[in-house]
Each structure stands twice: as structure tokens, then as C-alpha cells.
Amino acid sequence: MERKKRQAKELDPETIARIKQLGERITQLRKRDYSSHETFAYDFDFSRSQYYRYEKGEDIQFSTLVRLLKAFDITLIDFFSEGFDGK
Question: What is the pTM of this model?
């Protein structure tokens, strides 16, 4: 039996905007200690190209976000306390 490839769902504009906010917040936190996304990614064992895409607003898995927050030494509450308007 042939397995059908799952098609990605189109994201609505609000979801896209929120994911971009995640990327901006990730960038903000990284810049506290690292000028280079490549060095940060290397130091915390992330793919450099994938990490770059997260900063640019590509969708991110929750487990990856948790790993990033651990690298930043920040809680979920603290992460979402800046840069998000709560809507």
C-alpha cells in the first residue's frame, strides 16, 4: 500500500506573524551574549542553518523552543513576557 505524503497546511496571517515574533525574540536573546548566530548554534549543538531559519521566523517545534530556552537560561514565562502583545 502506497503511503500518501501529508500536505502542509497553509498558515493564516496571524499565525505567521506570531512565528515571526518568536524569531525576533530568539534573535534578541541570542544577541545578549553572541553576535553570531553560527557561534551560538555551534556552542549549543543546533544546526546552524536551521537555527538561522528560526531567527528568520520559520516555524519551530515546541521541543526545539524548550531546548533554546534552556540554552538562553530563561523560562517560558520570561520568554513570552517581552515582544508579545498577548492577543
Answer: 0.83
